[in-house]
Every structure is written in structure tokens, then in C-alpha cells.
Structure of NAD-dependent protein deacylase:
Amino acid sequence: MKIAVLTGAGISAESGIKTFRDNDGLWEGHDVMEVASPQGWKKNPSNVLQFYNLRRKQLLEVKPNAAHFALTELQARFDVQIVTQNVDNLHEKAGNKNVLHLHGELLKARSEHNDNLVYPWEKDINLGDKAKDGNQLRPDIVWFGEAVPKIEEATKIFSEANIVIVIGTSLQVYPAAGLIDFAPVDAEIYLIDPNPNVEASKNLHVFAEKAAKATPRIVKKIISTHA
Ligand code: APR
């Protein structure tokens, strides 16, 4: 039995990391195009580095929550692949394996002209920090308007799933948001979001609740039904 999980910023909200589009979300304080686009990088790289350096520092203080840990429990029993839009490392900190970061990772840096020249990077990235190819380092994050290199791999995961669990995403950003459409028609889909913007249907079960509360319960239900 294969389980595909899609997570967004909402799974990290109860760990203290801001989402993007909720009130007081990250994008409320910033112009996306200034801090998360190739145009913004070209115009003012220091501004972009400052934005990500601040977000990276936050990671040192935050901890996974019950939703992340519930996924570790699920992975102990089933083949569970996690596709996350998040760039934080809370899935890994909770012991989740098989985590595919669709939009990159805050704790990685890469050459600004070669997205295969990637380095683990836990500290600030400063102007003048160079990759082996002599180019400036940038956060290994997929910016708006950039290709999503791992989308084919992610699509395959969802196309083979018997169960899909969607946790804490507004489903507004493609191609990530389209992944659930690739699930087989007979797949069971569970969606957890206090403000869901999808309608429940025969095989789509919607839980208008926070992740840390609903995910452990749904994981228990899946284990008791399918283990
Ligand atoms: N538990 C579960 N879901 C929550 C919680 C919570 N405690 N708090 C908020 N949410 C939900 C919100 O209702 C919303 O639907 O999480 C979702 C967060 O949506 P966004 O802020 O749009 O975040 P996300 O869907 O991950 O954004 C996708 O957009 O900005 C880009 O690259 C960025 O990866 C990001 C992508």
C-alpha cells in the first residue's frame, strides 16, 4: 500500500513558522517579487540574502509538532513518500524519511548559475560567498517563475498512491497544487486544513482542523484500518 503526503506551510504553523497567505503571513510583510524571484535577486541580492538568512536563523529555534511526528509513525508501517512545499527541516527533525522538497531547502545553498552545484549551508549566505564554479552562492530555493526540477518525481509518487494525505496547504501554487489531481480515481484522499478551500467528495475527506490535532488521529485511523 503506497501513501503520498503533500505538505505546505500549515503543517509548520504550530511549530511557530509563519505561513505565507494567512493573515500576518510571510507575504504580508514582503513583496514576493522582491525577495523570492530571479528579478528580485538580480535587482538586490543583499535584500534577498537578508530575507533568507533571517528565515534560516528561525529554524534553529523551532521544533517539529505532533503532525510531523505522526508521519514518522505512519512511515514505520507503510511505504510513505512525503512531498513538501516547505523549505524548513521540520520533517527531517521529526525523523521523517523519503522527504522530497519541491521548493528547495533553507539549509542548502547553490551556485547562482548552476542548480546542480548545491552545498549544505546552515549559516548566513553573504555576498561574496562563492560556489566551486566561482559564482555567487544563493539559497537553494525554487523562486517564483523558476522551474520545479523535482515535479516529475513528485507526480509519479502521487500517480501510484493508494492513499493521499494533504496537510496545511492553500493549494494556490502550481505545479505543487496539481499533484493531488494525479492520484488514482480510487485513492482515498484526506485533507487537513482549518480553512479548507476544497469540497469534500466521495473519496476526499476534509478535516477543517489544525494539523497537530487532526494528523495523529487520521494516522491512527489509517493504521487501524490498513495495517
Ligand atoms: N494546521 C494546518 N493547516 C494550517 C494551519 C494549521 N495549524 N494554519 C494554517 N493552515 C493552512 C492555511 O489555512 C492555508 O490553507 O495552511 C495553508 C497555508 O497556505 P499558504 O500560506 O499559501 O502556504 P503554502 O500552501 O505552503 O504555499 C505554497 O507558495 O509562497 C509559495 O513557495 C511558497 O511553498 C510555498 C507555496
Q: What stands out?
A: The CA atoms of residues 191 and 206 lie 5 Å apart.
